Amino acid sequence: MVSSFLKCSFLLAVSILNFMEYFLIMLLLCLFLVRISTKKYRATNKMHNRVYDTEEYHHRLQIFTENKRMIDHHNAGNHSYTMSLNQFSDMTFEEFRKFFLLTVPQNCSATKGNHISRTGPHPDFVDWRKKGNFVTPVKNQGHCGSCWAFSTTGCLEAVTAIATGKLIPLSEQQLIDCATNFKNYGCFGGLPSRAFEYIKYNKGLMSEEDYPYKGFGIVCHFEPGRAAASVLDVVNITSYDENAMVETVASLNPVTFSFVATAEFMHYKDGVYTSTQCKNTPDMVNHAVLAVGYGIEENGTPYWIVKNSWGTAWGKDGYFWIERGKNMCGLATCSSYPLPAV
Fold it and tell me: 11 CB contacts (<8 Å, ≥6 apart)?
C-alpha cells in the first residue's frame, strides 16, 4: 500500500516536473519570439522615422507582432508571392484602408468603352520603363487616399512623354484640390477616368514643381497659363476586357486600372500577387494604380507590371506583379487612358 502510494507520488512529481519544464521552455520561447518582434519593430520604426509614447508603442507592437505572425505563416506556405514587414506593419487593415485606400464607394464600370481594338500578335513581354524615358519614379501618396490622382498623373505623364519626348512629373495636388466637380473626393477617393475628364475640360494640369504635393486638400489654385499637360480625349476600356488592356500596353502606352486591395496585399513583397479573398466587381474597387507592362513567369503564369504610389520601400521597389488574364481582384473592370493634347 505504502509502496503504491510512493510510486504514485513519484510519478505525479515527475509529471509535474515535466509539465514545469515544458511550461518553462514554452515561456522562454515566447519571450524569445517577443524579443525578436520587438527588435524588428524597433528597426522598422527607425527606418520609417516613427516615434510613439509608451502606451501607443505597446499597442502598435501588438499589432506588429500579429502581422509578423501572419506574414511568416504565409511565407512558409506554397504561394506565388511573398510578403514582408514594411511601413504599414504596425497598422490594422481597417486603419490602413482609412488612410491609404479609396473610402468613398466607387463604381467605375464602363459597360461599353471607346477603346479601338488592334490586331495582334503582341509580344510576350512589355515594360515601358525599358522602352525609354516614359515613366516617372515611384511617388508616395502618404496618409491620403489619393491613389487615383497618382494613377492619373502616372498615365498622363507617360502618354505625353511618348508623344513629345519630354517626361514631366505632373501635379496630384491639383487633382485633389480642384477635381471635386467631377465626382472625385480628394483624399477620400476618386477615379482616373473622371480625373482625365476634369483635365480635359479644365484645359490642363500643372507640373508637380509648380503645384507641389501636400497630401491633404487645400484651396484650388490652378493657373491655366502654367499647364504642363492637357487631355484631348478619354479612352475607357470596356469592363472585363483584359485583352484590350494588353493591346493598349503592347501597342500604345501604360493604362490605369482600379482593383480591390485586401489585408494581404498591404504586405506584398515579391512574386505574382493572386488572391481568393478579394472581390472582382466594379463596385468594390478601392485602389488605383498604373500598368506599365506585362510578362509571363517561367511557370507560365501571366502577370501585369504595376506601378504603385506607396513609395519605394514597399513591394518590388514600389512596383508589384499581379496575375493577368483572370480579372484578378477586379482589375479589368475599370481601366482607362487619355489621349494627350499636344
Answer: none
CB 60 within 8 A of CB 52: yes
| CA-closest candidate to residue 330, choices 101, 109, 4 | 109
Residue in 131, 170, 200, 174 with CA at minimum distance from that of residue 339? 200
pTM of the model: 0.85
* Span 143-182, pLDDT tens digits: 999 999 999 999 999 999 999 999 999 999 999 999 999 9
Q: Is the peptide bond before 212 cis (omega within 30 degrees of 0)?
A: no
CB 250 within 8 A of CB 122: yes
Letter string b/e over residues 280-302, b meaning 16 or more CB atoms within 10 A of that residue's CB: bebebbbbbbbbbbbbeeeeebb
Residues 6+ apart with CB under 8 A from 226: 206, 207, 210
> Amino acid identity, residue 211?
Y
The cell numbers describing 254, all together, are: 501604360
Q: Which residues are catalytic?
A: 147, 287, 308
Fold of 83-340: Cathepsin B; Chain A (3.90.70)
For residue 314, give the nearest of 157, 108, 147 by alpha carbon: 147
Number of CB atoms found within 10 A of residue 275's CB? 19
pLDDT in tens, 106-148: 776 554 556 666 667 899 999 999 999 999 999 999 999 999 9
| Buried-state track 324-333, b at ≥16 Cβ within 10 A, e below 16 | beebbbbbbb
